[in-house]
């Protein structure tokens, strides 16, 4: 949490005034006459930061050691002459054909031992020394050439590291995995203990016997799998560090890479990555495979703010309209791009950028939307882009303002890896779904939430929500227990606290690490079929999960009125120290979950709540002199709200008793309340 009184400094450190409005640009796909048109139109749209050279390798170094920077020189100069800053890719994200031809050993292998070939992108093994040698040579040559160039505002290392190649199972990776394990466990016996290799005759006598978790006939060792996720995340982070180091040796320009805090990629533990970034940047695309995609957008934005430690961050990519990589690629409705963009800003982004500037004519992304679509400037997308660009400039005063909350939600990539493994009580329990449900319950009650790592300092919060934290270390669980003991309130949901960091079950009753603070003990899990619904006293319905739970100091606030555990406690409340821990032993229906969260927030005295109508998001950013209340209407009805002040979007004053238009957004400037 950003404490009140933290000086609000120049937000992203990119030397730009106000907010960033930008895009990826791939000039190598276009004739040079087009570049001039592009830059003219970028100015018309108000673009002030352009990411180039993200996939530049084969263009800059078409043959080994044969560097050609002329085109890059030219485009950087052209952008600079037009007052547009450069977010300069190191160009290393996809190896050129000459490299994979000379060194096929850099190609990655998947779990069945087969190779993934060039022809797509990111076809490289994260542990390959040969890949690293060539990539660092390119990064160094690029950094030497542009490290002092005033047009370059940001270094963009590689691209979405781990998007496709996070998990490589080749022999080079196997050796690197063994090295990582030796450093972690020091002795082979410590590894045997941690991995529980007494089971199924898996005991290792030598490090050399250990392999990555390649495809097996049966379930694979879960601790081996978990450590492989950790190793793989660390390996790419180490790769990032190597590129950043090469750049920092010759350039003082900030360095970053674009994260993917998203529902469909779970391979990077960004809590460990974030401290290495000069600017935290995220890519986010609406995922229409999810129920309500814009809620996941809000979660991603809040999580990115969490990764940035509450400071402003940069949305490096999103889309003006459809993407090309989902089964059905939905065009955005009129106004939706504006709502999406401003939701990121509301939740702490000091800039929004898009993939990409001009829609490609060739390649697999030719049907991906862009700022400049195939249909050109006589298009709805272009008109909305120009409108958004002009608004982003008017919103400059928001830069550096922050979002504050006294409600935290604990989110853990490690728990995600561990929870979603096979051979658990229910394959229907999916970690991220439960996190999203808890988050959506908080959205429904108008709460602004900080997403925090396990073990994060909770002082300053009144309520912490802990959804399905199956894997948690003793130390991180203790932080939550201490928080409650000291007067904080917690809502902990089923299948939390079960295993330690090695995926070893805590002996005794469930929920292991949280049984004392919750004042309960669970004897056995009773998962339910997806279609099954059970009823609780008080009128709630529930599904997915139930537990044979005994009260050990807690009171039951709801019990099962049908199903296999009729009469047993389903929701509990325990006073512990001077605080309160609630435990949800089942998956409440969304309305009942929201009610339970509202009860907890109110009892905790949480203040980061706003009155909301269904489908309206309210978020407040606080600046030095003003607060900015974002009112985002996802419904198609004009909706009243209680906020008044000057609306920076319409540039009109909103009187008390105002409304927000269907699908509209208002950013209402208010004079700061004296604190
Ligand atoms: C990612 C990549 C981009 C592009 C977009 C398409 O975010 O970084 O290069 O492929 O996806 O949505």
Can you describe this structure in just a few lines?
With 675 residues, this protein is an alpha/beta fold. Among the domains are: 407-604, Class I glutamine amidotransferase (GATase) domain (Rossmann fold, 3-Layer(aba) Sandwich); 616-674, Sandwich (Immunoglobulin-like), CATH 2.60.40.1180.
Key descriptive features of the protein:
675 residues, alpha/beta, Rossmann fold, Immunoglobulin-like, nine-stranded parallel beta sheet, binds alpha-D-galactopyranose
Describe it:
With 675 residues, the chain is of the alpha/beta class. Among the domains are: 407-604, Class I glutamine amidotransferase (GATase) domain (Rossmann fold, 3-Layer(aba) Sandwich); 616-674, Immunoglobulin-like (Sandwich). The chain contains 17 helices and 29 strands. α15 links the parallel β13 (463-466) and β14 (489-493). The longest helix has 27 residues, at 222-248. It is globular, with a radius of gyration of 26 Å. It starts with 19 loop residues before the first strand and ends with a strand. The model is unreliable at 4-10 (pLDDT under 50). The chain binds alpha-D-galactopyranose (GLA). The site of alpha-D-galactopyranose (GLA) has 9 residues, from loops.
CATH architecture of the domain at 407-604: 3-Layer(aba) Sandwich
CATH homologous superfamily descriptor of the domain at 407-604: Class I glutamine amidotransferase (GATase) domain
What CATH first level of the domain at 407-604 would be assigned?
Alpha Beta
Q: What is the name of the CATH topology of the domain at 407-604?
A: Rossmann fold
Bound molecules: alpha-D-galactopyranose
For the largest beta sheet, what order do the strands appear in spatially? Answer: 5-4-3-2-1-9-8-7-6
């Amino acid at each position: 949490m950003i404490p009140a009184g933290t000086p609000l400094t120049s937000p992203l450190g990119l030397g730009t005034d106000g907010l960033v409005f930008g895009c990826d640009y791939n000039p190598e796909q276009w004739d040079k006459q087009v570049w001039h048109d592009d830059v003219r139109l970028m100015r018309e749209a108000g673009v002030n930061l352009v990411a180039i050279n993200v996939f530049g390798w084969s263009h800059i170094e078409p043959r080994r050691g044969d560097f050609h920077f002329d085109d890059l020189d030219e485009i950087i100069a052209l952008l600079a002459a037009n007052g547009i800053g450069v977010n300069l890719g190191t160009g290393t994200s996809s190896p050129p054909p000459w490299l994979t031809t000379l060194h096929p050993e850099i190609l990655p292998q998947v779990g069945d031992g087969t190779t993934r070939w060039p022809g797509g992108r990111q076809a490289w093994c994260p542990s390959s020394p040969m890949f690293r040698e060539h990539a660092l040579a390119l990064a160094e040559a690029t950094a030497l050439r542009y490290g002092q160039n005033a047009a370059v505002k940001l270094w963009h290392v590689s691209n979405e590291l781990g998007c496709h190649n996070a998990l490589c199972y080749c022999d080079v990776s196997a050796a690197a995995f063994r090295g990582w394990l030796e450093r972690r466990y020091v002795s082979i016996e410590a590894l045997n203990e941690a991995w529980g290799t007494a089971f199924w005759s898996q005991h290792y006598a030598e490090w050399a016997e250990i392999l990555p978790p390649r495809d097996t006939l049966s379930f694979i060792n879960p601790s081996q799998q978990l450590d492989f996720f950790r190793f793989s995340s660390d390996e790419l982070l180490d790769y990032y560090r190597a590129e950043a180091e090469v750049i920092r040796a010759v350039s003082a320009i900030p360095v970053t890479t674009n994260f993917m805090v998203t529902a469909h990629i779970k391979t990077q533990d960004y809590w460990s990555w974030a401290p290495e970034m000069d600017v935290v940047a995220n890519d986010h695309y609406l995922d229409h495979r999810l129920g309500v995609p814009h809620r996941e957008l809000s979660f991603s934005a809040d999580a990115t703010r969490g990764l940035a430690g509450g400071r402003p961050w940069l949305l490096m990519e999103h889309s003006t309209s459809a993407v090309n990589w989902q089964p059905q690629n939905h065009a955005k409705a009129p106004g939706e791009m504006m709502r999406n963009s401003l939701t990121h800003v509301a939740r702490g982004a000091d800039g929004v950028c898009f993939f990409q500037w001009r829609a490609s004519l060739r390649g697999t992304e030719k049907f991906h939307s862009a700022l400049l679509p195939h249909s050109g400037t006589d298009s709805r997308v272009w008109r909305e882009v120009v409108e958004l660009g002009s608004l982003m400039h008017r919103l400059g005063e928001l830069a550096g303002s922050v979002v504050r909350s006294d409600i935290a939600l604990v989110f853990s990539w490690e728990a995600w890896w561990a929870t979603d493994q096979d051979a658990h009580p229910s394959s229907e329990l999916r970690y991220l779904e439960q996190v999203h449900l808890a988050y959506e319950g908080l959205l429904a009650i108008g709460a602004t939430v900080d997403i925090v790592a396990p073990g994060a300092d909770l002082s300053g919060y009144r309520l912490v929500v802990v959804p399905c934290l199956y894997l948690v270390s003793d130390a991180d669980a203790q932080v939550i227990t201490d928080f409650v003991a000291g007067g904080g309130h917690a809502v902990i949901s089923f299948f939390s606290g079960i295993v330690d960091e090695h995926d070893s079950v805590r002996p005794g009753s469930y929920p292991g690490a949280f049984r004392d603070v919750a004042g309960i003990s669970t004897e056995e899990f009773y998962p339910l079929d997806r279609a099954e619904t059970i009823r609780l006293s008080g009128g709630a319905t529930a599904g997915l999960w139930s537990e044979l739970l005994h009260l050990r100091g807690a009171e039951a606030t709801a019990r099962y009125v049908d199903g296999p555990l009729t009469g047993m406690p389903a929701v509990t409340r325990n006073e512990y120290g001077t605080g309160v821990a609630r435990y949800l032993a089942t998956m409440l229906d969304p309305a009942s979950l929201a009610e339970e969260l509202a009860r907890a927030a109110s009892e905790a005295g949480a203040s980061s709540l706003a009155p909301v109508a269904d489908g309206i998001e309210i978020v407040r950013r606080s600046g030095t002199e003003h607060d900015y209340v974002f009112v985002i209407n996802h419904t198609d009805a004009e909706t009243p709200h209680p906020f008044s002040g000057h609306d920076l979007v319409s540039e009109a004053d909103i009187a008390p008793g105002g409304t927000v238009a269907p699908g509209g957004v208002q950013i209402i400037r208010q004079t700061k309340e004296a604190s």
